[in-house]
Every structure is written in C-alpha cells, then in structure tokens.
Amino acid sequence: MNFPSNIFNSHPKEDGDFFGGMTRILGFKPKKLDIYKKAFLHRSANVKDAKGNPMNYERLEFLGDAMLGTIISRYLYNEVPEGDEGYLTKMRSKIVSREHLNELGKDLNLIDFVESRIPRSHFGDNIHGNVFEALVGAIYLDRGYKYCEKFINSRVIIPYVDIEQLEGKVISYKSLVIEWCQKQKKTFNYHVYEDTGKDVLKHFAVKLTIGNNVVAKARATSKKKAEERASKRAYFALQNKIDKSE
Amino acid sequence: MNFPSNIFNSHPKEDGDFFGGMTRILGFKPKKLDIYKKAFLHRSANVKDAKGNPMNYERLEFLGDAMLGTIISRYLYNEVPEGDEGYLTKMRSKIVSREHLNELGKDLNLIDFVESRIPRSHFGDNIHGNVFEALVGAIYLDRGYKYCEKFINSRVIIPYVDIEQLEGKVISYKSLVIEWCQKQKKTFNYHVYEDTGKDVLKHFAVKLTIGNNVVAKARATSKKKAEERASKRAYFALQNKIDKSE
Fold first, then answer.
1. ipTM of this predicted complex?
2. Do both A80 and A157 map to the same domain?
3. Which one, out of A50, A182, A199, B199, has a CA that is 20 to 30 A from the CA of B15?
4. Per-residue pLDDT for B195 more than 60?
5. pLDDT digit string (tens) for A179-223?
6. Which sites are catalytic (chains A, B) (predicted)?
7. Exposed (0-12), middle (13-18) or buried (19+): which is B88, by Cβ within 10 Å?
8. Is the Cβ pair B70, A67 closer than 8 Å?
9. A167 lies in a domain?
10. Which residue in chain B is spatially nearest to A54 when comparing CA positions?
11. How many domains are contained in chain A?
C-alpha cells in the first residue's frame, strides 16, 4: 500500500494547522497528535501501521462510544435522582442516538479533518457521528478520563442535553412562548443575528422581545437552537405569570 | 414504608463488619459507605430516600455496567492492536456476558451482603452479576475512574480474561496437556488442595506433575480454574517439545 505522506510524516505547516484545529475543537492542547490523526483516518485511505495492522478511526470509535456512554450515564445518574434504571437507559440512548451524534459531529465540522480516498460528498450522514465518537476515544487515550469528561460536558451536555425536551414533556419552548403571547395579546419578536465572535464555530444570537421588554437573549450554533434557548429562558422567566394567568 | 434501621442507621458493630467486608473485596478502603450499602439493597427491601425516591442497587447497576464496558474496551484496545471494531465488540460482550458477571459476583460471595425481604434461595442467578455491576457503580461514585479501573483489573481482567480462550482457539489447556502426555506415553498427575491463606476468597492450589517432574503450579478460586491455569503454564513450557514432536 501507499502510505500517504501528507498524513503522518512531519509537515510542519500542515501539522500546525491540524494542531490548531484540534486545540480549538477540544478546548485544550492535544499531547499525542498522532492519536487524533487516527481519529480522522477513513478506512478508504488504506493506511497500515508498522506491523501491517489496518489503521483507521474505527477502533477509536469503539472506545469513544463506550466512554461517551459512561459519562452520559454518570450525568443522568446525578441529574435525575428519581429515574429508575429503565428511565436512565432510555434517556441515555436518546442522547447518544446516531442522529444526535451526527448533529454533534456536523456542528463541529469534523468532516473537514477526515482523510480518505473517497470524495466527501460520497459519505453518508453517519460519518459525522462516527468521527465524533473516534475523537472522544482519542481524547481518552491521549489525556485520560478527566479530559474526556470535560469535553463531553462542554460539547455535548451543556449545549445539547435538555432533560425535559428529551422526556418529550416539552417539544418546543418557542411554541409555548408564542402561545402565551397570543393568549395575553402581547406582541413578540425574535431578533436573530450572526454572532460568531472568537468562537471556533459559527454562532447565532437571538434577542427575544415581548411587548416592549427584552425578556431573554441566547446564543447557539444554529438559528433554531438559539431561538429555542432564548424561548426556554423566557419561558422560565414568565413561568410565574403563566401560572397566575391560568 | 418501614426504613430498615439495621441498614442505614449507625450501628457501629454492623457498620464495622460491612466496612471490613468491603475493604477486603475492594482492596482499598471505601470512603462513602452509604453508596456501597445501596449497591447491595434489593428492591424488595422497599427503602426510599428522604425525597421518597426508591432506593436500591438498580441505578448503580446501570452506572457500573457502563463503566465496566469502558474499562474492558480500553483493555481490549491495548491488548489486541490487530482486532477491528467488530472483533473488539464481540470480545467485550463475551467478557461482560451475564454468565461471566454472575460467576464474578458468586466468586466474591457478594450475595452475603444483599439486603432484601426475599429469602436468598429465591433469587435467580442474575443477582450475582447485577450486584457486581452495582458495586462497580458504587466505586465509580465513591472513588472515581482510577479506582474503578484498578478494581476491574484486579478482580476481572487478571483472574478471568484469557483472550485465546475467549477467541475459542483454546477450549481447554488441560485437554491439550493430557493429549500431549498420552501421545508421549508419560504419566501425569494433578494434585489439588485447598490453599486459601490470607485471601478473602477460598482458593485452591494445583501442582501438575508429568513423569517425575513438577512442571507447573497454580492457584485460583476453583479447582477447575486452578487446573486450567496450571495446564496453561505447562502447555507453554512444553510448547517447544510439542512443536518438535509433531
């Protein structure tokens, strides 16, 4: 096989780009860069290690999947003391669903780092989630459990996990807010604008005005998410009023 | 409900017994004893926490199951660099199989600590494995990832995991040794005796003699395991002779 020299050999400029990219995504400096490179190596690149073993992200994906399950389990255990084993299992599988992991990988634009011999347009949707899991596996090997936990907390739990929405109790906070405004005969406005700032990801900000008051602001990686987040804040701020009005 | 006072209230003597028992099984001193008590609390005991949430080992079992999967994944990742994702998944499920976990729990006599309102004889086999998983969950909460890893290494991986046997390449080393002896017209003898020593678990020792030579010794928690372990050692010691004789 041909060992693609641009992947593992020392090319200071490209290594620097990769290092910078990883540091932005991870939120810390990777130590063993080779492990992260492996996390983006598609099997089609047909790379083998010194002993002839195929080298690609699939083994790291196996590791990352397990680690992700553990950290999410711990989070749910603490967060929902009243949930029994069946509930915890169901919630965990919603959080680590293929669909959800693909969304996470897409938001981080992980596909930009993938090395393959197949054009990117030929990949299915699952590559986003698979590479995300492989990245978690790489963090585990490079920096251990604690860094994995921090990464999953900042990249998965804080931005994406909403227990009430996962439980299906609340489908959309935006619709609850709109319903409340209509009932109260109040005007409302979602003002959305791009606000990426120094962030590695494109971000949107939302300012939600009800009547003449700005009742909530939020920021997220998509317009829809930012609106939903602002609505959730507004919803809890208005909770008292809603309760009284019923 | 009645809160069984002998479980959670302060009974110095009983707490001391439980603490001693846990310390022997864990190989380290537990910090938050209450978490471990929960790991042995069967749902039939019908205990509830201060907020009225049911309290039993099932939530800890959920956590321990995830942690066990992660540590075994990491072990396999390192141990079998040539195994692909499918292989790793298959091997992991063999190691954490219900049957295997029940065996682990039984060997540690975990059922002796279970608090329930059902007589022990009424439990099925799975309680052994379930409580073992809950114990792993308790370690995770009490002492964190590192202690979990150490515990699983010393109580699962070192004494029980044999990659070649799991792969089905070798069903029984004892049968290989016997076959070799018969082919070579040599006498053999497995001398088995109890040798618990200072160990928390009952142990057996085996001395394997072929012809006039003691070729291997081993110690394990059952006669069968000790024989198998001695046979494996003998098999590798005899490997050269076997190769030459073929």
1. 0.74
2. yes
3. B199
4. yes
5. 888 888 889 999 999 888 877 778 899 999 999 999 999 888 888
6. 65, 133
7. buried
8. yes
9. no
10. B82
11. 2
